[in-house]
Amino acid sequence: MGKYLAMIRMRFLMMLAYRTDYYTGILIYSINIGAYYFLWNAIYGDKSSIEGLSSMQMTTYVAVAWMARAFYFNNIDREIANEIKDGKVAIEMIRPYNYLGMKTMQGLGEGIFRFFFFSIPGMLLVAFIFPIELPHEPATWGIFGISLLFSFIINTQINLLTGITTFFLYNNAGLIRAKRVIIDLFSGLLLPISFYPIWAQEVMKYLPFQGISYVPSMIFTNGYSSGDIGMALLQQLIWVIILIIPIQLLWIVAKKQLIIQGG
Amino acid sequence: MSDAIQVKQLRKEFKSVSSRSGLKGAFRDLLTRNYKIVPAVNDINFTVKKGEMVAYIGENGAGKSTTIKMLTGILEPTAGEITVNGMNPHKEREKFTQTIGVVFGQRSQLWWDIAVQESFRLLKKVYKVSDEQYNDHMEHVIKTLDIGPLLDKPVRKLSLGQRMRCELAAALIHNPPLLFLDEPTIGLDVLVKMKIREFLKEINKKYNTTILLTTHDLGDIEALCERVIMLDEGQIIYDGELQSLKDNWAEEKQVHFQFIEPVELHELQSLPLPFTANWVYDEKHQTYMAMMKEESDHISQLVSAVVSHFKIKDVKIHETSIEEIVRNIYEEGTV
Amino acid sequence: MFYVSMFFQYVSQYMKTRLQYRADFFMEILSDLLNQVVNLVFILVVFGHTQFLSGWSREEIIFIYGFFLIPFALFSSFFNIWDFNDRYIVKGEMDRILTRPIHSLFQVILERIELESLFGVVTGLIIIFYSGASLNLELAWYDPILFVIFAVGGALAYAAIFVAIASIGFWSDAKTSIMPMMYNIGNYGRYPVDIYNKVIRFVLTWVLPFAFVGVYPASYFLRKEEWYAYAFATPVIGLVFFTVSVFIWNQGVKRYRGAGN
Q1: Which of C256, C223, C261 is nearest to C96 (CA)?
Q2: Which of A240, B31, C35, C253 is 20 to 30 Å from A139 by CA-CA measure?
Q3: Paired strand residues for C192
Q4: Is B66 helix (H, G, I), strand (E, B) or coil?
Q5: CB pair distance less than 8 Å for C34 and A171
Q6: What is the C-alpha separation between B302 and B325, in angstroms, rounded?
Q7: Cβ contact C154:C212 at 8 Å
Q8: How close does chain C come to A47, measured CA to CA in Å?
Q9: Which SMART domains does UniProt cross-reference here (chain B) (predicted)?
Q10: Is it the case that residue C49 has pLDDT exceeding 90?
Q11: pLDDT averaged over every residue in chain A
Q12: Could you write out the DSSP letters of every residue in C185-208?
């Protein structure tokens, strides 16, 4: 366990060295939030609520969705792809730790850093500029935290999967890009899932993506009834468990591939 | 108009940020920066005649590259006058670059992913070279540099030596009267170096091409240049013949010997020689060094005397490097 | 004339490079396409919940988006200079550029062209024709000409912003994230400016003229007469801003310090 903590710490220090990037990062996210704020205002017009969300809740939703993205988002798929292409992965294999676990911890280190230096100050800044409503109940904050952790795990698992595919498709830069676009759309970052037509919502129920952004954002905006919250969290948990299977399977095949090709 | 390059009181200053120390200093840096003005080239003057081959030398950071970049129009001088091929390089850049060829040893002119001849073809258009001119001139260049077989290979598949020869050919597509070479032989093996030197000599003779090169390799200079301009800390500290520079500042020649059987220092010192050689024992490398003036056949006399008396394992003749010459000049003061 | 022939020379050079990596080429087009689909889906889903966006109908918004894609495709094919600072200043490639007898900006642009982005023109046209048909838009004989002029004007306005920002590299080679920020701000221009507040509207019109890439020129074809003045200003704004940005670039080249010092 100690070595994984050390890896989190390493990443944390690395990120600290690049902290100026974060100030502009916050600005970029605020610009995005701003664009959607005005857009949603125009969409609401003089309607008081759409799909059960008030205009104020919608603004909050957009803000929290983007700031949560700062926490769960990472580039470990690209990192894995590069390490495979450079042949570094063979060296990683002989180290006394689980490669995928290590990558996850690096992602977590990065995420924790961004949570404190990006999401929190960013959220404060955004709350200052736009009319948003923070949850009153301490319990909501707690549940939001748990849900956010799940969303980190699901997103990381999908990244690991995409990264491992490099073993099979030599150049998967396109796949990585496509994955990012799909997650932005289907996770509920751009649009709450409840806004989609019913048939689309049905399809998305069977996909892991809404566990990444929609669930934590809805919890934060008090968009769920209390029964729904439990269901949503359970759904996230189930996806966390299900996704382990393809990762492990692909990883076993990939390791065999690595031995044959020699890295 | 017999001068290819005229430089008068040329100066280039760079502004560099100096950060204050401590946390308090870091915050003050956020508000106001402290700038230091550093002259990279400090009021230099020289001229190069047409058809001359000149070596422009000095240690790293002496201002060589900065001068070359001003002469080629890349940088604008802070002060002073430059006339190259009768033009102001920076002001008339687009017209001017038509008349020069440039090779940067560490930077490629060629397109990485496609065949060499495709790069040549594009550069031919860039420099508006007609088909006749191109065929007439480049056929010869390609033959002399022996790059014919490389032309249909992508640049990324070439070795460094092969690439350098192609770079050189690429710089000559428009047959410029003036050629700038920045470390053209860096990292190359001896054979390639020799081929490049031969080639440069030939085009100098054939087209009266003026060549200005920077190098760390004394061999390049000896093979090509009669004249050397030496730069240090932005100022010219020597401008003249290579031979007199070496005569005055090259250290004595050093010949290193290793023997099969143990030899005493006094035995060596008592060898019969018509000149004086100082013998020193180098404990670290277990070698004996003879130091003496480099004159006529002294080295061969020394070696034959040693060989006839002792069994030797190894002989090395130490070549004085440019860095050592610069150091010597420094140790002994002004030129 | 020389510059026109050089343009085609570089394009053919680019094609040869690209043909070596065909898979990348298609992936690039595909992921651009995916991006465009996502943006369309967004518009479609939103209009499942409202009839009008500040008085603009769904088809009109889609038309604006379709129009936006065309100057944007022109821009991304020919002004792919977002990494100029890194590639040319920090790594010193600018040295090489400056030893050749062609204008430096022209060379940089040609070396970085990415023609696969031109596919966006096709998507844009399809979207425009589809939405235009459902809006029953009428075409005058000169409209195609105006269309080309407006598209080029919009692309120039877009390019001007990025050329000006790339020029900052000549003064300071510090790493900045201004480039990605501009791409994000550029997205503001895809929607009618009347949904934003006054300050943003002013910025998008006169400071960072992204509105001239999408809404303003598109509103002419949508026959929104209240915006005609802005629509017809598109080529002027494009030319003026681009000229200024080239001027800034030229000033920057004088300040170029070279790499590795």
Answers
A1: C256
A2: A240
A3: none
A4: helix
A5: no
A6: 24
A7: yes
A8: 9
A9: AAA
A10: no
A11: 86
A12: HHGGGGS-GGGS-HHHHHIIIIIS
The answer to whether chain C touches chain A by having 3 or more C-beta pairs less than 8 angstroms apart is: yes
> Cα–Cα distance between B228 and B232 in angstroms, integer?
13
- How many domains is chain B built from? 2
Q: What angle do CA A230, A36, C70 make, to 5 degrees?
A: 130
* Residue scoring higher pLDDT (A245 or B266): A245
Q: Is residue B332 part of a domain?
A: no
Q: What phi-psi label fits residue B43: left (phi over 0), alpha (psi between -120 and 50 degrees) or beta? A: left
Q: Please enumerate in sequence order all residues whose Cβ is within 8 A of that of C15, keeping only pairs 6 or more positions apart, or say none.
A: C115
pLDDT tens digits for range A101-125: 888 988 998 888 888 888 998 899 9
Which residues from C are below 8 Å from B100, CB to CB? Answer: 99
User: Is the ipTM beyond the 0.85 threshold?
Assistant: no
Together in a domain, B310 and B164: no
Residues whose CB falls within 8 Å of the CB of residue B249, separated by 6 or more in sequence, listed in order: B325, B328, B329, B332
| Residues contacting residue A165 through CB under 8 Å, at least 6 positions apart | A172, A175, A250
Is residue B39 located within the same domain as residue B102? yes
Chain C residues with beta carbon closer than 8 angstroms to that of B108: 96
pLDDT digits (tens, 9 = 90+) for A25-38: 888 888 889 888 99
Contact indicator for A74, A111 with CB cutoff of 8 Å:
yes
Burial class (CB in 10 A: 0-12, 13-18, 19+), B223: middle
Specify the pLDDT at position C153: 96
**Residues of chain A found within 8 Å of residue C34, distances taken between Cβ atoms:** 178, 181-182
Domain ranges of chain A: 2-261
Please determine, for residue B251, whether its predicted confidence score (pLDDT) is greater than 70: no
Is B120 an 8 Å CB contact of chain C? no
Mutation pick from B14, B69, B128 vs chain C, by most beta carbons of C within 10 Å, is: B69
**In this model, does residue A164 exceed pLDDT 60?**
yes
Of B216, B247, B278, which marks where a domain is finished? B247
pLDDT digits (tens, 9 = 90+) for C81-121: 988 988 898 888 899 999 999 999 999 999 999 998 999 99
CB proximity B66 to C under 8 Å: yes
Asked if B43 and B80 touch (Cβ cutoff 8 Å), the reply is yes
B266 and B130, same structural domain? no
Tell how strand B53-58 and strand B227-232 pair up.
Answer: parallel
Tokens in use for A78? 């690209």
Q: Give the other-Cβ count within 10 Å of B242's Cβ.
A: 18
> Is B65 within a domain?
yes
Domain boundary among the residues B193, B213, B247 is at B247
φ/ψ (deg, to 5) at B57: -125, 170
Can you tell me the distance from the alpha carbon of A203 to that of A201, in angstroms, rounded to the nearest whole number? 5
- Which residue in A65, A85, A63 sits closest to A73, CA to CA? A65
Q: Can you give the CATH number for the domain in which B272 is found?
A: 3.30.70
CA–CA min distance C140, chain B (Å): 42
Q: Record the tokens describing residue C167, joined without a space.
A: 């020029």
Q: Give the integer Cα–Cα distance in Å for C192 and C224.
A: 12
CA distances from A142 to A139, A232, B111, B290 (A): 5, 15, 57, 82
pLDDT of residue B335: 46
Q: Please, where are the H alpha helices in chain A?
A: 2-17, 20-44, 55-72, 76-85, 89-93, 99-114, 120-129, 138-164, 173-186, 198-205, 214-220, 226-261
Q: Is residue B62 part of a domain?
A: yes
Full residue range of the structural domain in which residue B315 is found: 252-319
Give which of C247, C244, C260 is closest to C94, Cα–Cα.
C260
Do B228 and B264 lie in one domain? The reply is no
Percent of chain B at pLDDT > 90 equals: 36
Q: Which residues in chain A are contacts of C27 at CB distance < 8 A? A: 171, 173-175, 177
Same domain, B79 and B147: yes
Three-state SS at B58: strand
The answer, for B97 touching chain C at a CB cutoff of 8 Å, is: yes
